[in-house]
Amino acid sequence: MKWEIANPRILLLSKSLGILKDEEDFMDLESEIKQEDAFIHIVMKKIELVRPDLIFVQNDASLKAIETLLQGDITLVTNVK
Predict the structure, then answer these.
(1) Which residues contact 17 (CB under 8 A, 6 or more apart)?
(2) Which of 52, 57, 71 is nearest to 7 (CA)?
(3) Is residue 57 part of a domain?
(4) Mean pLDDT of the chain
(5) Which range marks the domain in which residue 51 is found?
(6) Does 78 score more than 90 pLDDT?
(7) Bridge partners (DSSP) listed for residue 17
(8) Which residue, 29, 54, 66, 77, is the most exposed by fewest CB within 10 angstroms?
(9) Residue 48, domain member (yes or no)
(10) Do 39 and 65 contact (CB within 8 A), yes or no?
Protein backbone atom coordinates (compact mmCIF):
# COMPACT_ATOMS: atom_id res chain seq x y z
CA MET A 1 0.00 0.00 0.00
CA LYS A 2 1.28 3.44 -0.91
CA TRP A 3 1.83 6.04 1.80
CA GLU A 4 1.81 9.04 -0.48
CA ILE A 5 -0.01 9.45 -3.77
CA ALA A 6 0.55 12.60 -5.81
CA ASN A 7 -2.61 13.59 -7.71
CA PRO A 8 -4.53 10.39 -6.87
CA ARG A 9 -7.32 9.02 -9.03
CA ILE A 10 -10.14 8.30 -6.56
CA LEU A 11 -13.07 5.92 -7.07
CA LEU A 12 -16.09 6.13 -4.74
CA LEU A 13 -18.36 3.08 -4.47
CA SER A 14 -21.63 2.90 -2.62
CA LYS A 15 -22.64 -0.35 -0.93
CA SER A 16 -20.02 -3.13 -0.87
CA LEU A 17 -17.42 -4.56 -3.22
CA GLY A 18 -18.54 -8.15 -3.54
CA ILE A 19 -21.69 -10.24 -3.64
CA LEU A 20 -24.38 -9.49 -1.09
CA LYS A 21 -25.55 -12.74 0.48
CA ASP A 22 -28.90 -13.50 2.04
CA GLU A 23 -28.01 -15.32 5.24
CA GLU A 24 -31.27 -17.27 5.30
CA ASP A 25 -30.80 -18.87 1.89
CA PHE A 26 -28.89 -22.14 1.62
CA MET A 27 -26.47 -22.36 -1.29
CA ASP A 28 -23.98 -24.85 -2.64
CA LEU A 29 -20.58 -23.60 -1.45
CA GLU A 30 -18.78 -24.54 -4.65
CA SER A 31 -21.26 -22.71 -6.88
CA GLU A 32 -21.18 -19.73 -4.51
CA ILE A 33 -17.39 -19.51 -4.81
CA LYS A 34 -17.51 -19.78 -8.61
CA GLN A 35 -20.21 -17.10 -8.79
CA GLU A 36 -18.24 -14.74 -6.57
CA ASP A 37 -15.01 -15.33 -8.54
CA ALA A 38 -16.79 -14.54 -11.81
CA PHE A 39 -18.44 -11.43 -10.35
CA ILE A 40 -15.20 -10.11 -8.84
CA HIS A 41 -13.37 -10.75 -12.13
CA ILE A 42 -15.95 -8.64 -14.03
CA VAL A 43 -15.90 -5.85 -11.45
CA MET A 44 -12.10 -5.76 -11.37
CA LYS A 45 -11.95 -5.46 -15.17
CA LYS A 46 -14.30 -2.45 -14.97
CA ILE A 47 -12.23 -0.91 -12.16
CA GLU A 48 -9.04 -1.40 -14.19
CA LEU A 49 -10.55 0.74 -16.97
CA VAL A 50 -10.79 3.69 -14.55
CA ARG A 51 -7.24 3.07 -13.21
CA PRO A 52 -7.83 4.42 -9.68
CA ASP A 53 -5.09 4.81 -7.09
CA LEU A 54 -7.53 4.89 -4.21
CA ILE A 55 -10.99 3.32 -3.74
CA PHE A 56 -13.46 4.28 -1.01
CA VAL A 57 -16.24 1.75 -0.35
CA GLN A 58 -19.31 2.51 1.75
CA ASN A 59 -19.50 -0.95 3.34
CA ASP A 60 -17.11 -3.87 3.07
CA ALA A 61 -15.19 -5.73 0.37
CA SER A 62 -14.78 -9.44 -0.23
CA LEU A 63 -11.43 -11.03 0.48
CA LYS A 64 -11.02 -11.88 -3.21
CA ALA A 65 -11.54 -8.21 -4.18
CA ILE A 66 -9.10 -7.02 -1.52
CA GLU A 67 -6.41 -9.46 -2.72
CA THR A 68 -6.91 -8.43 -6.34
CA LEU A 69 -6.67 -4.73 -5.49
CA LEU A 70 -3.51 -5.26 -3.46
CA GLN A 71 -1.91 -7.07 -6.39
CA GLY A 72 -2.79 -4.08 -8.56
CA ASP A 73 -1.21 -1.68 -6.03
CA ILE A 74 -4.58 0.02 -5.39
CA THR A 75 -5.36 1.34 -1.92
CA LEU A 76 -8.78 0.37 -0.52
CA VAL A 77 -10.65 2.13 2.28
CA THR A 78 -13.78 0.33 3.56
CA ASN A 79 -16.69 1.22 5.85
CA VAL A 80 -16.75 4.87 4.77
CA LYS A 81 -19.82 6.70 6.04
Answers:
(1) 43, 55, 57, 60, 61, 62, 65, 76, 78
(2) 52
(3) yes
(4) 86
(5) 10-18+27-77
(6) yes
(7) 61
(8) 29
(9) yes
(10) no
Q: For residue 42, what is the domain's CATH number?
A: 3.50.7.10
Query: Domain count of the chain?
Result: 1
Within-domain flag for 35:
yes
State the pTM of this model: 0.78
In the chain, % of residues over pLDDT 90: 42
Cβ partners under 8 Å of residue 46, min gap 6 = none
Distance in angstroms (rounded) separating the CA atoms of residues 77 and 58: 9
- Residue type for 76, please? L
Q: What DSSP line would sit under 6-60, residue for residue?
A: SS--EEEESS-BS----TTS---HHHHHHHHHHHHHHHHHHHHHH--SEEEESS-
pLDDT of 16-45, one tens digit each? 887 766 666 666 778 888 888 898 899 989
Residues making up the chain, counted from first to last: 81
Residue 59 belongs to a domain: yes
